[in-house]
Amino acid sequence: MPTAPREPVLLVDREDGVVTLTLNRPAAMNALSRELRRAIATAFRSLADDAGVGAVIVTGNGRAFCAGLDLKELGGETADEAPGALLGETDMMSALRACTVPVIGAVNGFAITGGFELALACDILIASSDARFADTHARVGIVPGWGLSQLLPRLVGIGRAKELSFTGNFLDAEHALAWGLVNHVVAPGELLPTCRSLARDMLSCDRATLLAVKRVYDEGYRTTLAEGLRIEGRISVEHARAVRPEQVAARRRGVQERGRSQSR
Q1: pLDDT in tens, 224-264
Q2: What is the pLDDT of residues 204-221, one digit of tens each?
């Protein structure tokens, strides 16, 4: 009998300018195999110059957002190349961080170690009440290489970040919200609708301006306050040169109408 076709490890759904990327290895808690890492990198690279995409949502299929690197590959059980080579791969994270449109992480379940780092690389995190975060790098015996040691303390404070990394203990969704790691916690069934609603709000902004604002945030966040202020000033001036007064007037009317509708 012919073998049934295997499902792709990454599902890509596109609707009304929003692309949803779903990690699809539920039996392995969406562990980042080499195939999945490459699929994620390819997906983000393909979005780089796509003017029809205004936002990206990243989520997982099943009970996990992502359990991190595939430890079977990392342990040399299934890998075709030396396990150490897995640690140096940065294509997936580089492609995600180079994404010019907003990336929303829809954390549906466990986000562990490399999966935690994948979540941290998103612009905004929305968590299901089932979400659980953990950093087990020290327990597995590897040092973070995708940004966790630098990004996590900036979000939750260095003491809390060290507690998570030094213990490997889980952080539940409500504590993640209280610590400022995620923006909202919602019921599991409301996770994707909430993320899509946020994405639609983003798409209603002026695209060129939104992308410039994201660029200012991203470039400034990676440096000192003084340099970040210089970056903001430079990009603001560059953007303003391309804006016509009638455009500002039209957008101002739209902002006022939206404000009135939201305050009723």
Answers
A1: 888 888 888 888 888 778 776 666 566 556 655 655 666 56
A2: 999 999 999 999 999 999
Please name the residues in contact with 27: beta carbons below 8 A apart, sequence gap of 6 or more: 62
How many C-beta atoms lie closer than 10 Å to residue 133's C-beta?
29
CATH of the domain at 143: 3.90.226.10
**Distance in angstroms (rounded) separating the CA atoms of residues 3 and 127:** 37
Is residue 89 located within the same domain as residue 56?
yes
Beta carbons within 8 Å of 212's beta carbon, 6+ residues apart: 235, 236, 238, 239
Q: Residue 9 and residue 67: Cα distance in Å, rounded?
A: 14
CB atoms within 10 A of CB 228: 16
CA–CA gap between residue 56 and residue 50 (Å, rounded): 12
73's tokens: 């590959």
Tokens standing for residue 151: 């990004």
The overall pTM is greater than 0.85: yes
Amino acid at 180: G
Cβ–Cβ < 8 Å for 30, 24: yes
Domain count within the chain? 2
* Structural domain boundaries enclosing 215: 207-263
pLDDT in tens, 88-101: 455 899 999 999 99
Please check whether residue 2 lies inside any domain of the structure.
no
